[in-house]
Amino acid sequence: MTVNAQKENGIVYSEHEAINKTKAMWAAFVKGDKEAFVSFFADTIWVGSNGEYEKKPQKYMSGFVDWWNGFDNFIIQDDKPAFPDAIDYKNGGLWVQDWLLWTGTHKATGIKVKIHVHDLYRFNKDGKIAVANQYFSDNIFEQIEKSQKTIESGVIYKYHPYINVTRKAVNAWAAKDIETWLSFYTPDAVFGSLSLKDGESIDLKTKKADDQKTFATYNTIELVESGEPVCVAYEKEYYVVYSWWVLSVTTMDGKKKSNIPVMLSHGFDNNGKIKWEGVYMDNKRLE
Predict the structure, then answer these.
(1) How far apart are CA 172 and CA 258, in angstroms?
(2) CB atoms < 10 A from the CB of 103, how many?
């Protein structure tokens, strides 16, 4: 027989003066009232961010207000269905925990934030917050910081061997030379287009079957370069060629469809083979 022992360690409240204080504190924060916001804290606070703590003076907290004043439409609200709790431990003091949703638009960069935040606050005997710890994903803050700088993402080439590969692949496709066209792609290449659902792609076998239907529909296919293609070598060491074309076709019964803009993007592997392709065009122009 198993006996599950239970021992009460405190009381949990869904309504409590300490919860009201945290709500009033965040209301002052959103309003930009630094004096009101810092008044909820003890003279010295242990401030935690994702489990890492630092001991700070009360005035340190005002800096957070200054930073978040850089947002439009700034809102802090309960991250429903979660609601705050106050927990009065027998030996651990009074704590409040909440789950909040922070939203707003950074004025300088236009970046929209939607941050899920979990807070833990410990109140001292004077009813002030002596420990404040937050858990959240900080990826968006790194993006905001970097977006206020000029940082290179890669190198753009006007002439590059991979541009030549793209051009040869397009020429082979327009000539209905499927075997030559295949030689420029990896066996596991994937293909995307505006005709597919967002995030969907097809494999090389499916693309080849689709192309055979296309070749049976059109007597002639012509793709003429429009503008200058570029090859971008991104900082993460992968290459993408972007190119622009004008498509014209003639159906087997002599009907012509012309001047259809097409944008292509091709990603390359380390061996100079195309591993993914994106096609951007209005397919209704072919109807």
Answers:
(1) 19
(2) 14
**Confidence class of residue 1 from pLDDT cuts 50, 70 and 90?**
very low
Span 10-22, pLDDT tens digits: 899 999 999 999 9
**Which pLDDT does position 5 carry in this prediction?**
67
81 preceded by a cis bond (ω within 30 of 0): yes
CA 120 and chain centroid, separation: 27
CATH topology of domain 10-147: Nuclear Transport Factor 2; Chain: A, (3.10.450)
Q: What is the pLDDT of residue 285?
A: 86
pTM value is 0.68
Fold of 154-286: Nuclear Transport Factor 2; Chain: A, (3.10.450)
Tokens of 244: 């622009």
**DSSP H helical ranges for the chain:** 17-31, 34-38, 62-68, 139-147, 161-174, 178-182, 204-217
What does each C-alpha distance from 249 to 218, 220, 254 come to in angstroms?
A: 6, 6, 9
Q: Which amino acid is residue 158, in one-letter code?
A: K
